[in-house]
Design a protein that fits this description.
α7 (about 110-130) crosses α8, α10 (about 240-255) runs parallel beside α11 and α11 packs parallel to α12. The protein is built from twelve helices and eight strands. The two termini are about 15 Å apart. The longest helix is centred in the middle third of the chain and has 22 residues, at about 110-130. The protein has a single domain, classed as Arginase, Chain A, CATH 3.40.800.20. About 35% of the residues lie in helices and about 10% in strands. α11 (about 285-300) links the parallel β7 (about 260-265) and β8. The protein has about 325 residues and is of the alpha/beta class.
Amino acid sequence: MILYDQSIPASIEEFGVQIPVRDSRVIKTFQALLDDPQLKARQAHWHVPKIAEQLRREDLLRAHSEEYVQRLYSAGLEQEIISTFELIDEEGKYNRYDPDSAIRPLTDLFDRLLKKAAGSVQAARLALQHGFCFSFTGGAHHAQHNYGNGFCLLNDIIIACRKLQAEGLVRQVWVIDVDAHKGDGTAALAEHDSSIRTLSIHMAKGWPLDGPEKLADGSLNPSFIRSDIDIPIESGEESLYLDRLRMGLDTLEEVGRADLAIVVCGADPYEGDELPSAALLKLSLEQMFERDRLLYDWLAARDIPAAFLMAGGYGDKVWRVYSQFLLWVLHKRFVAA
C-alpha cells in the first residue's frame, strides 16, 4: 500500500523555511507510479489517498514530556519551531529562513507536522493489515523527549509504536533506520524500552555526532545514546554498506521476532541528495535500490509487517530513489501476483 495524501505538500517554503525538501520528491515519485500502465490500472488497490488518522495530546505524550507538549500548544510554539529547524543562528541572523517570503505564519506548520505524524500511525495500521505500507510522510527520528531537533518536531516513529502497543495491536516493534543521519531521538526515547528495538546505519561522523558528548550539566548528550544496533559508515566505506546492513539485520533477529517493523527509509544517503549535512555518505542509485530491496525482502521472508516512512531526502533528484523501489514493490505485490 502507498499512503499519499496529495493535500499535504512536502515543501515548507510557504512558511518562509528554505530547507531543500522539495515537492518533487512526492509529486514525481507518484507520477512515476501512474506512468506505469499496469499500476495505473490498479491504483485503487494500492493507493490510500487520505491521512484519516488523528493524534491527540495524549498521543504526543507517549514520546514527549508534558513540558514540551505544553510548549507546543502555547505561545512558545513559534520558538520551538525556530529552534527545531535552526532558523536563527548563534549570531541571531536568519538561517535558511526568510519570513518576508512566507505566505503562512510559522505556527501553522505545527498542524501539518501533526498530520504527518498521524500518517505514520496510519501507515503502521495499514502494514499490519496488508503486510506492507510506504508512507510519503514520516520518519522524524531526531525529535527528543523534551525538544525538537534536526527538522524533527515530533517523533512520529515512537508515537506510532507506543500508540499501537497501547491499543494491543503489537507488542514488539523494530525500528530500522537507514537515513543518512543517526536515529538519535528514536534511540534515546527507546533506550530503556525493550519492546522497541532500534537499528541505525548512518554516517560515522558529522551531524548529529559532531557536537559534544557531554552537555553543560555533565549529562550525556542524547544524540550519543546508542541504538540497540549502531552501524556507523565512514566516508569511502560505501562498498561495505550493504554487507554491514545485512549483518545488522541478522543481529537484530537474535532478540526474537517483531510484530511490526518501522523502516525509516531516508533517501539522503544517495549521492544526488542536496543536503550538505548528509554529504559524508554517497551511495549510488543502484546501491540505494539494493538497500531498499534488501530491507523489503528480508522482512517479507520473515512475514513481518513493514511500514516504510519517507524520512530524509533533499533536492530535485531524490524522487528517483523512492520511485525505483516503489515501482519494483508494487509490481511484485499487485502485478506479478
